[in-house]
Amino acid sequence: MKMDDLSVPRDPESAAQVDYLSRDRLTALQVERLQRVVQLAYDQVELSRARLTDSGMLPQQIVGLDDLSRLPFTVKQDLRDTYPYGMLACPMAEVRRIHASSGTTGTPIVVPYTDRDLKVWTSAMVRTLHAYGIHAKDVIQNAYGYGLFTGGLGVHYGGEQLGATMVPTSSGSTDRQILVLKEFGVTIICCTPSYFLHLLDRAEDLGVDLRELPLRAGVFGAEPWTEAMRKRVEQSAGIKAFDIYGLSEIVGPGVAAECEQQDGLHIFEDHFLPEVIDPESGEVLPDGEEGELVLTTLSKEAMPLIRYRTGDITTIIPGTCPCGRVLRRIRRISRRTDDMMIIRGVNVYPSQIESALLAVDGTLPHYQIELSRNEDLDQVAVHVEIDGDSDASANGRLHGLVTDALKRVVGLRMEVKLLAPQTLPRSEGKAQRVVDKRPV
Ligand code: DLL
User: Fold this and answer.
1) What pTM, to 2 d.p., does this model score?
2) Domains in the chain, start-ordered, CATH in brackets?
3) How far, in Å, from the CA of 313 to the mean position of ligand 1?
């Protein structure tokens, strides 16, 4: 294979060849691409040029990966400040597609792609699906939203390139999704984990048992989920549930993916160079330590990003994976730097609450955390649906078990409300786990 060949072989074995390069060859490829991408950003993007100049680090000074930590960070606010096209590094005529992410607040993030950017993205998605053991004979129902959101088209083109059959249902229309699942010979489903839970519930209402269908795996991401959730999903649907990670700014889905070991997500680090930093000091942390994931795009043409602070908290797993891929792995993203709640002085993350809830038999994986304020004191109430079969006398016990589990895992006594099944709102994309009713 030519060192810098970005063409996308149709055959997934060849596309995935780089997953098994030696570390030395991979590093050489990364350094060469890093030099090139920093030069591109310096030449074409005013903000990057100013940052690099201020940092005293010019593109030609990069000689190895150790120099990465001397480069300045890029943050989400930079993309907002330069909205919509201020970070564009190529002529508009070369932009082939635009995606955007609305985020929770404010100005959307606009993500342009050149032809080659799209090819690289597709190849990362081919490698992703291949790593899950998905192949040309699979029928893939893609219930990620098609449109400005990257989930739909990103997975779609990857699946087609792999040679699989794509069923582009997009998000929503749950009853139709179930009809397709049941009647189209679907073997793989792709959607957010929370939407899959909704599909499972609705299927049950309609008398469809997913375990009796040819469905064998799910590709779940775009929002945090826990190991406890994986177990529930795998058991109730009779499938393997794989984690997929990505973010619009970098490319979309296909930045990192689990392999069949289901023990961490391999980063496609020939295109997306990872670091983990201390979110407070910005210092790079050694492998094995938890911090904020920072990514540098090594091959992006339309919007190269240098040391982009993702806000996602993870750990680079030391050592190699038994699957043989040389690509480093990150732990599943359990939380973001900005979804931490401080409740009565204790740092609390929704993922801790999810793990605590799902550790208790009789709870359903549908929950919502409500924050309110009472006389200047923050209050948190955890609403969780419970198995419809639990009768009133059993509920008192369940209530106690859930309260204790939360106290044990999170370190706080929280108000718990047990709800009947189907009470909480369902989402077709990313679930809203926290409802903040505190006055601003
Ligand atoms: O969610 C891209 C995507 C689509 C990924 C489909 C996977 C599948 P954004 O809308 O820009 O892009 O949101 C990116 O979502 O920074 C994380 O905080 C979160 N996220 C994405 N994947 C995971 C995951 C897409 N597997 C933001 N686990 C990221 C936890 C995830 N969080």
Assistant:
1) 0.92
2) 1-337 (3.40.50.12780), 341-436 (3.30.300.30)
3) 12
